[in-house]
Amino acid sequence: MRYPEEHKEQTRDRIVRAASRRFRGRGESNVAIADLMQELKLTHGGFYRHFDSKQELFAESIEKALEEGAEKLLSVVKKARPGMELECIIGVYLSPEHCARAAEGCPIAALASEIARHPRAVRVRFDKAVRDFAKRFAKFLPGSTEGERQRNFAVLFSGMSGALSLARAVADEGMRRMILEGARDLYVQSFCSPR
User: Fold this and answer.
1) If I label 91, which of 44, 50, 131, 187 is the partner at 20 to 30 A Cα–Cα?
2) Domains of the chain (ranges plus CATH)?
């Protein structure tokens, strides 16, 4: 039985979304393709009709997670008062809710150290996804040129993802809260205060 092309695209999208949640929640090495496909009620062999390898799926799932994360943040920004967009982004990103939901959160905070150990092809796709993400948010950052705004984006998001990653790693709830609140206050003061 042949399925229409849109069915194949929908199935691929289901695989990517489910894998993305698993990768962010468990780490890439703790995700078995057979288990993933079984959860989706698809055959293990069917995986290879959509992807050449687990690494291809990993790269695509990171791209998808960054795209979806950008959409979530932009939906929050639309509700912010004019001039408060960046403060809103920082607050949502460094929130206890985002910290508690690694599987639905930022793939940079969840997977950056793993991405660094992947082959160049995966890292090149990650680079492009980060650049695309940056383009969507640079306009909210201070700087008189696009280059300055891109630099500020790199500093802010690398710092926020590191703080989020560290907050997720600690066992003590008080320390977790201190990390999130301290980072939030520092970044709001550094990037949102008028100069």
Assistant:
1) 131
2) 53-192 (1.10.357.10)
pLDDT band with cut points at 50, 70 and 90 for residue 44: confident
85 closest CA partner among 75, 100, 95: 75
Residue with tokens 């939901």: 101
Q: What is the pLDDT of residue 7?
A: 77
CA dist 139 → 133, 151, 176 (Å): 11, 12, 30
Residue with tokens 């960054």: 66
Q: Which two tokens stand for residue 101?
A: 């939901």
154 pLDDT higher than 60: yes
Token couple for 102: 């690694």
Residues contacting residue 116 through CB under 8 Å, at least 6 positions apart: 123
**C-alpha to C-alpha distance for 157 and 85, rounded to whole angstroms:** 15
What pTM was estimated for this model as a whole? 0.89
Which residues fall within 8 angstroms of residue 115, CB to CB, at 6 or more apart? 62, 122, 123, 126
Residue type, 108: I
